[in-house]
Amino acid sequence: MDGMCIFASMIDSIKVHIADVAVFEATSADEVEQFRIAYLGKKGHITKLFADFRNVPNEQKKEYGQLLNQLKTEAQAKVNELQAALGGKGKTKGALDDISRPGQPIPLGARHPISIVRDKVIDVFSRIGYGLSSGPEVEDDWHNFTALNLPEHHPARDMQDTFFVQTKPDVMLRTHTSSVQVRHMESNQPPIRILSPGRVFRNEAISARSHCVFHQIEGLYIDKNVSFADLKQTLLYFTKAIFGTAEIRLRPSYFPFTEPSAEVDIYWGLETEADYRITKGTGWLEIMGCGMVDPNVLTNCDIDSEEFSGFAFGMGLERMAMLLYQIEDIRKFYENDVRFLKQFTSAS
Ligand code: DAH
Questions:
Q1: How many CB atoms lie within 10 A of CB 180?
Q2: What is the spatial distance between Cα 213 and Cα 34, in angstroms, rounded to a whole number?
Q3: Model-level pTM?
Q4: Is the shortest distance between the CB of 221 and ligand 1 below 6 Å?
Q5: Are 283 and 268 contacting, i.e. CB atoms less than 8 angstroms apart?
Q6: 289 lines ligand 1 (CB under 6 A)
Q7: pLDDT tens track for 110-119
Q8: If exposure means fewest CB atoms within 10 Å of the residue's CB, which of 75, 142, 165, 327 is most exposed?
Q9: Last-in-domain residue among 86, 104, 136
Q10: pLDDT tens readout for residues 43-94
Q11: Residue 264 belongs to a domain with what CATH number?
């Protein structure tokens, strides 16, 4: 054989390889790997063919080199294609091949601070026998006002700027959760011991201190011989559990649905500059309203006010959360900024 013939067959052999690569099929990742080693491995066909390059006469080097590059590119493309289809070298074929592999972590969310505080209060009162009761957010005049001893034209109605849904007959967004007291007493006889958490609405300008939507928890206890001393003891128990202090004071106040009425302050202290600011320099903080249920309210709800007496209280959840977590702006609760909400991941 003369030189030409040898080189012609070398070129042919690359062409045969190119054709072989084009038709190659594999049914497993192992077969792909064997193919890869045979063509692209250190001792594979392509390495050998490159080594033979120096023996190729100058006039054929160009064609030989082009075909060899074509073979290399096509062999690599075939390996990539088959690895992608069959899972490739070393990779498992499917997600379930190794069921002991740890799963993908699920990012932890956080409970909303209002929910955290609400559940704390519910938990504290559930230990002394309080259940839950709920009512609608869209209320009628009777349940939001009239039955609570706030008849039409009563001046105290102005204390709660109301969003009306409809007038005559009046339908409104409830301004307080006291409406749930009425609904519960209308359909239950004493003994009654309930908490009613929920959203309330007031037509107020939004600022750092007040919002037109906020949350309250209402409490109601009706039984025989319930006295103001029972109310006071319950409040002491509550403030100790939530704020860690039993140092409270009851300031005489006025609510149409309770008589006598009081506002509850806790002693917050005056240690830091912030303490001065939030307590307006007094050290005391108001946390809720309360009182003995007015006999008129019991009568309005078909409960015998000669036989039964009771107390009620109502508190704002945003206010409590602001105190407990030192949040200075009520609007933060409704902005849904994850940087704010994330801070409560471990709160409980
Ligand atoms: N309903 C009152 C308010 O919205 C809060 C309140 C005060 C509720 C005294 C009560 C209570 O049950 O006895 O501000």
A1: 25
A2: 69
A3: 0.72
A4: no
A5: yes
A6: yes
A7: 899 999 999 9
A8: 165
A9: 86
A10: 999 999 999 888 888 888 899 999 999 999 999 999 999 888 886 555 555 6
A11: 3.30.930.10
